[in-house]
Write a structure and sequence with these properties.
heterodimer; A: 492 residues; alpha/beta; 24% strand; globular; B: 358 residues; mainly alpha; two-stranded antiparallel ribbon; two-stranded antiparallel sheet; 16 helices; 4 strands
Chain lengths: 492, 358
């Protein structure tokens, strides 16, 4: 791929990116959120088309206008959210819509099963082709995705954070498999935030930053420090600068979590949060960040450990319990969990407050509308009406509605999971300001984010999670550079 | 944000076109707010009308057009005769009553297929209890019938996790079977005139009691849906169950309640059948679930939940009655009536459908 450029709504996302992949190579693609990795890959897959630039396969220029074109040229994506049908068998999934036919146009299941067995033996894995997908673990789903790609003779596989949902053993299986594919002359593009994996499996690495290639180098010639430096780049705009705040940690913590265990992902987490403090939670994808938030808000079951609010132990079995204790959550996915998209700004904002604005069992609409207007104003939600459906708002403004909803609830503790994901820089800055203002008013704030720049801009203290365990705790003052935090997150 | 950076979302999803163009840079957005301080009601109204498209009003438009059509072409057949109009209301009243509760069920993205059978069962239990213990006990027994069935439906859906479609499909058979069994399929007469008059046969002055029942339920339903926390939470649960849960709404309890109320109201409908026909019988209400659901969907309630209108459901129910009546007056055979009715319903829903992506 050379000179690839792409802009969305006039905003350039990729500026003349060159990317080269050799036969039988594992080429890692890294970069922060919004660096342009996914856009570049979507161009290669034919989901987007580039504004300019060329793509060559085996030295011949090709046009990739659709995923079908990409497949024709042997390029296949291993999807993060798997594109498999749980109720169909492994073989049926692999040959979905391309089923081998017997005489008379009937399906030839035997042939599909035979070919599936061949594919898996090529991968060095034993799976009964007749097993329904639903009976298999995530690891096998991924293997099936890979087998499906091989079944169309893919020579280039794109893997986006393939290990984030895998267990340690499954990851090892995947790495062994990647070796095997490599030796068969298949090339892999490996997108990951996990440095140690990149150092283990990749031959070369390309770092993208702000839509440009910063370096492409052989992995043995790089150190982790240098790579992190390249990812982070020059210091960010003033907007993301840290404003030092003073927090009094002499009293009783507003929230104290001890040895918390929930599900598979939260295995042993302890931390405390003081009034007026902003606590950042960092960790790689799959480290249990989101699951910790879900557990504290009563969505997922807490299996052991204690949670104390203002020194009093509390039981959290449902969001209702969390809300009663003054804990609110701005969830990870605003469209799925934060908002009823087809309802108005007003109805969304009032949803948790209905009990408070009623009078004699009826909703006091005047009071509700007044409340909504004041929050829409103070958070500068841009909407031409509070009766507008939130679906029609921009991402940043949608997120402000979610935040406003909880501000209006007046919690003591606000947990925010990826509060600025997918929103523009202006809104981002505003949301970071809101977070600071809230903390200044004495509330305890937990910010979970995969964007370390942002975490460093607001946090007074950072807890680093790794594999569901709170491994390190750093005062903001101890963290000199983003590189340093990166390093801790990678190696904690 | 005083410098006003271009607030275009850089998020690739939006850029790919999965989200409509951003409106936040719309100058009206800035201009509209300051003016709101002055005359809030007026602006509020304009805002509402501005944000809503005509498709939501298809049932109202369709109702008026049909009414005009029949008035013009069937005037000579007595369509506009007050007795004929009252007849339409009387014939649709029981469907309207059930449609009110069904509006909540569908608004919460659930379904209740058992309402017709529950009405039949309640007509039977009420009639039997009146025969043995008098009217007050009869009324209580009728309502209890609905309560029990509704709780069973609701608990199976919320505790066991069976989809409401299947639970209520099963209950449709069970309730009907029980009604046949305890009566040996025979009608159970109700000889109490007071009961019969209050529940469906009598009039209050010129107004049929059925009309009063319908009005009361529609008004209560409309207020509960629009003005109470419960109503809002029902719609939030139907609109996005996950978001509702993350907002502290007890979504399982909401589902339990809509299904319970649906059965209780269906039982009331059964009691109205009993009063109107002076007897309880398993056949009363049989097949009504389809008319009820059609009325609700015709009324603009989304089959996928989240949006609902009680008034719309009433109009939907009246419109079905209007069509039936008009077609009879036109002299169509029952077979032809069914075809025309089916076509009109599909047409109305198709017109009200949002285009994908809009």
């Amino acid at each position: 791929m050379s000179g690839i450029a792409k802009a969305f709504n006039g905003i350039p996302v990729l500026h003349g990116v060159d990317f080269e992949l050799k036969r039988g190579e594992v080429h890692a693609l890294v970069g922060g959120n919004g660096a342009g990795k996914s856009t570049l890959m979507k161009i290669l897959e034919g989901i987007y088309s580039a504004d300019s630039g060329t793509i060559e396969v085996d030295g011949k220029p090709v046009q990739i206008k659709s995923p079908e074109d990409a497949r024709q040229h042997g390029i296949a994506m291993i999807f993060q959210e798997f594109s498999l049908v749980p109720t169909l068998s492994v073989a049926q999934n692999i040959f979905l819509a391309r089923e081998p036919r017997a005489v008379g146009g009937l399906l030839d299941d035997k042939e599909a099963e035979r070919r599936t067995r061949d594919l898996f033996s090529q991968l060095g894995v034993k799976v009964d082709p007749r097993t329904p997908m639903a009976n298999l673990s995530t690891g096998y789903w991924q293997l099936t995705e890979i087998a499906k790609a091989l079944s169309i003779n893919a020579r280039v596989l794109i893997m986006d954070e393939p290990t984030s949902s895998l267990t340690a053993t499954e990851t090892e299986t995947l790495f062994a498999l990647m070796d095997r594919l490599q030796s068969q002359g298949i090339s892999l593009i490996y997108i990951s935030h996990r440095m140690e994996e990149i150092f283990r499996v990749a031959d070369r690495v390309t770092v993208l930053r702000d839509g440009r290639v910063v370096i492409t180098e052989r992995v043995p010639d790089l150190t982790m420090e240098r790579m992190i430096e390249q990812i982070v780049g020059q210091k960010m705009e003033q907007a993301f600068a840290w404003k030092e705040r003073s927090v009094d940690r002499s009293g009783i913590p507003i929230l104290e979590v001890t040895d918390l265990v929930s599900g598979r992902r939260v295995r042993d987490v302890s931390f405390s949060l003081y009034p007026g403090e902003i606590l950042g939670i960092a960790g790689l994808m799959g480290s249990g960040r989101t699951e910790l938030a879900r557990a504290l808000f009563g969505i997922d079951r807490i299996s052991s450990g204690t949670v104390e609010v203002n020194g009093r132990p509390i039981d959290i079995h449902s969001p209702d319990d969390a809300l009663a204790a003054g804990i609110c959550l701005v969830p990870e996915d605003r469209r799925l969990q934060g908002l009823v998209l087809d309802h108005s700004v007003r109805d969304n904002l009032l949803l948790p407050l209905l009990g408070r604005i009623q009078q004699g069992g009826l909703i006091d609409d005047k009071r509700g509308t007044k409340l909504v207007r004041s929050f829409v104003k103070s958070l500068r939600v841009k909407t031409d009406s509070i009766f507008k459906r939130v679906r029609l708002l921009s991402g940043g403004n949608q997120q402000k509605v979610v935040i406003a909803k909880w501000l209006a609830y007046e919690p003591d503790i606000l947990i925010m999971d990826e509060p600025t994901a997918g929103i523009d820089i202006g809104a981002k800055t505003e949301i970071l300001d809101v977070i600071r203002r809230l903390a200044d008013s004495g509330k305890g704030i937990i910010v979970i984010s995969s964007e370390l720049t942002e975490l460093l801009a607001v946090s007074d203290r950072v807890v680093v999670l790794r594999n569901g365990v709170s491994k390190r705790e750093l005062m903001r003052q101890e963290i000199q550079t983003e590189e340093m935090l990166h390093h801790v997150v990678q190696t904690a | 944000m005083s410098s006003k950076p271009p607030n275009v979302e850089s998020d690739t999803q939006a850029a790919a076109g999965t989200q409509p163009p951003i409106t936040s840079t719309d100058p009206n957005g800035e201009a509209a707010r300051p003016s709101m301080g002055g005359s809030v009601p007026a602006v509020g109204l304009r805002e509402r009308v501005g944000g809503v498209d005509w498709r939501q009003y298809v049932v109202y438009i369709g109702f008026v057009l049909l009414f005009i059509f029949f008035s013009v072409f069937l005037n000579s057949s007595g369509f506009l005769d007050p007795n004929n109009l009252l007849n339409i209301v009387r014939q649709t009243a029981i469907i309207s009553v059930m449609a009110v509760a069904m509006t909540f069920v569908i608004g919460a993205a659930e379904i209740d297929l058992s309402v017709g059978s529950v009405a039949g069962l309640a007509s039977v239990t009420t009639a039997m209890a009146i025969g043995s213990f008098g009217v007050p006990v009869g009324i209580v027994v009728g309502l209890l019938t609905g309560l029990v069935v509704g709780l069973v439906n609701g608990l199976l859906v919320t505790r066991v996790g069976i989809p409401s479609f299947l639970v209520t499909l099963g209950m449709l058979g069970i309730a009907n079977g029980v009604a046949q069994w305890i009566t040996a399929t025979a009608p159970v007469p109700i000889l109490n005139d007071l009961y019969n008059n209050i529940f469906g046969s009598g009039n209050l002055g010129p107004i049929p009691s059925l009309l009063i029942w319908t009005t009361v339920l529609v008004v209560v339903g409309q207020v509960v849906l629009r003005k109470t926390p419960y109503g809002r939470q029902v719609l939030a649960t139907g609109g996005n169950e996950s978001a509702a849960r993350f907002s502290g709404v007890k979504t399982l309890r909401i589902k339990l309640m809509v299904l319970t109320f649906s059965s209780v109201v269906a039982a009331m409908a059964g009691m109205l059948y009993a009063g109107r026909l002076h007897s309880g019988r398993f056949q009363w209400g049989q097949g009504d679930e389809l008319s009820v659901i059609a009325a609700v969907i015709l009324g603009g309630t989304s089959l996928f939940g989240g949006n609902a209108s009680v008034i719309g459901s009433l109009l939907g129910s009246l419109m079905i009655g209007l069509i039936n009546n008009g077609l009879i007056l036109m002299g169509l055979e029952s077979s032809q009536q069914q075809i025309v009715r089916g076509v009109i319903i599909i047409l109305a829903v198709a017109l009200a459908r949002k285009r994908p992506g809009s």
